[in-house]
Write a structure and sequence with these properties.
62% of the residues lie in helices and 0% in strands. By secondary structure, the chain is mostly helical. α5 crosses α7 (127-162), α7 packs parallel to α9 and α9 runs antiparallel to α12. It is globular and about 65 Å long.
Amino acid sequence: MTDVETAHTDGASHGMRSNAELIGREDINDVAAVLAVVGRQETDGRHLVTDQCPAEFTWDYEKGARAKLDKLYEKAKKAQWNGQTDLPWDTEVDQEKVVLANAEANNDALRWSDTDVAGTVLEKWDEKDWLRFGIENQNWLLSQFMHGEQGALLCTAKIVETVPWIDAKYYAATQVMDEARHVEVFSKYLDEKLSGHYPLNGHLGLLLDDILADSRWDMTYLGMQIMVEGLALAAFGFIHAMTTEPLLKQLLRYVMADEARHVAFGVLSLQELYQELSASELRERQEFAFEAAIRMKDRMLMQEMWERLEVPPGDVLKIVSQAPERDDFQILLFSKIVPNLKKLGLLDAADGWLRGKFTEMGAIAFEHLSDSTEDADAFADGSPVERQVA
């Protein structure tokens, strides 16, 4: 058995698993089931996940044995920035004006079409209601990024403990600092510039729990570095392009520069390992990637926002079914994930099982895009601040 298989403490034999076993339902497009999962924050403000991973020392201290990881580590040391002093926090942010300006800049009507909202409470919304919708949408979206960054903070600390290579431990330590900074700046922006944050989305919470609870170090990489960070990188790019708010635009640009390294780190590390795994081990990783993809797609229905706006679940179901084109944006978020999974060999391993799943989702066309090891940001010299000045 391989080291990663031996390290798995569950002891269960792995066979063909159905969608119901992987994601809790057979139909990946069962919107009613998706909407039924809403995030709730624990009353004591804590969320505990049992983590049985073994921490691993290495006595091989040779720096640079894995040259590409070493190069990434050296770039990361130069690319650190200070979330308190390198962003223009004195920028005034009027959230209502930002929502209106973003809609105008992107030729996007603040109010949805009559067809999209027919037969729902949204039919009776006035301009004030739609403005509140825009504000809450922004609060919800950035809140999920913030929570995801804390998940990445915990996962990367775990990678420092569990990955067996010194070059990977070195790089992962720089990412721990990156993630702490990301949590800091998103929290500051939400609570000081916007109007507060939402609890963790239920579907994202299920995924983060699964990633943290798995005892195998490569599953932490796959779930966080490839899947969660890959989707975040794509989402940050879309929001950066669409927002008119200068502080958020600069914040996202700095975060994106870090995230490009994080995803490349995952690809470089797993590419080596996955060449050594058996077909059954690769299938297990394919299934984990598929589960992660569905969880991240499910979270985009924004259950917590609709609940705060007091829109009945039945009306949300109508809205989603009457505006299927909104699903297109969710699929676009996988543009950074699919080419990386292809680079890792996971799309076509085990008789192409994962290729079939992404084809079913409508995301397979992204496989021909460049993977994250080719991202200019990943190996850029200097910090985002220095590059901007240059």
